[in-house]
Amino acid sequence: MKKLLKRRKKGVAILLVAGTLLNLTACAVSAGERQNTTEENSQKTDYSATISYLEYAGIEALPDSDNVQTIKIAYGYAAYPLSYTANDGSVSGYDVEILKAVDALLPDYKFEFVPSAGGDDLLLGVQTGKFDGAVRNWFQTEERRQIFSFPEKNLGLSVTGITVRTEDVEKIYDFATLSKAGGRLAPVDPGDGHYTVLKNWCAANPEFAWEFETGQVSNSADKFAWVAEGRYDASFGLEVSFNSIVKAENGSAHQYDGKLSWVACAAIPTYVIFSADDKAVADAFDSVIDQIWDSGYPGVLQENLYGVNYIGIYGRDGLGFGN
């Protein structure tokens, strides 16, 4: 693993993006390394190995105050390694464990985790008052800032990337190489955080003069099929989606396993969202999250769940190389 991380450090290229909502880092690591990491992560299923912040830091949770307020936070119950409900009924995942750590340090708040199928239902649930907050690898966008309360500080770092045909992985491994190759990117949903990432990259790199298609796709497996069959040359999205739809034996696009490869190309800060009426809890989150980051726990947790400490490579905000 140390060798893997050293090679990744050498391959990361920093991109200074326009705007203040998102920072991202493009990477140019070797194709073989990308494939190895994807395969390793897809086999990471040892839920019992997750260590809590309290165990890691060797501390006890602060007792609840007399006026403790319960905050219902929705999470995706089948979104490993971000969040999941294990067979024994326990709730875990990177996002959930970080919030458990925050909860342990806030005597005036108690987080109650509510399972959900995920997706836009989480956002709608917070917007309508069904939930007080939600966590699902959220990126910040201007539209979301107008509707929800975001903490100023991130809880994690998401590495997202592009899916390409395996035969093309040496020449197409990030936005720049896709553009140079004249490749076509499958439509990106304007309502998705990935749209903001890509828009900011294009604004920061006008020399590529690259236009990309927008649009919603009802079946997420379609984009993988379009790339495999040559209609498009890449699809932009999370590795967890690639693993569940293509790598998994029961995935709806598993027939393309081997023909397609997922390549990391952007590192983006992620946030928990709260309802517009819950700015106080967002501020409370900000008051303790640095303590958790400074302990090193997020990197250890990501190593445990993802198989790679991306935080150690990219830094907390996605703009560093780590140590």
Give structural attributes.
single chain, 323 residues, alpha+beta, D-Maltodextrin-Binding Protein, domain 2, 2 domains, three-stranded antiparallel β-sheet, 13 helices, 20% strand
Give the helices and strands, then pairings.
Layout: H1 2-11, E1 12-14, E2 25-27, H2 31-42, H3 53-57, E3 69-76, E4 78-79, E5 83-85, E6 91-92, H4 94-104, E7 109-116, H5 120-127, E8 133-138, H6 142-147, E9 156-165, H7 175-180, H8 193-204, H9 220-228, E10 235-238, H10 239-247, E11 260-274, H11 279-294, H12 297-306, H13 310-314
Parallel strand pairs: 3-7, 3-8
Antiparallel strand pairs: 1-2, 4-5, 5-6, 8-11, 9-10, 9-11
Helix pairs in contact: 2-10
What would you say this structure looks like, in words?
By secondary structure, this protein is an alpha+beta fold. The protein has helices spanning about 1-10, 30-40, 55, 95-105, 120-125, 140-145, 175-180, 195-205, 220-230, 240-245, 280-295, 295-305, 310-315; strands spanning about 10-15, 25, 70-75, 80, 85, 90, 110-115, 135-140, 155-165, 235-240, 260-275. The protein folds into two domains: about 5-45 and about 160-265, 3-Layer(aba) Sandwich (D-Maltodextrin-Binding Protein, domain 2); about 65-155 and about 270-315, 3-Layer(aba) Sandwich (D-Maltodextrin-Binding Protein, domain 2). The protein is built from 13 helices and eleven strands. Helix 2 (about 30-40) crosses helix 10.
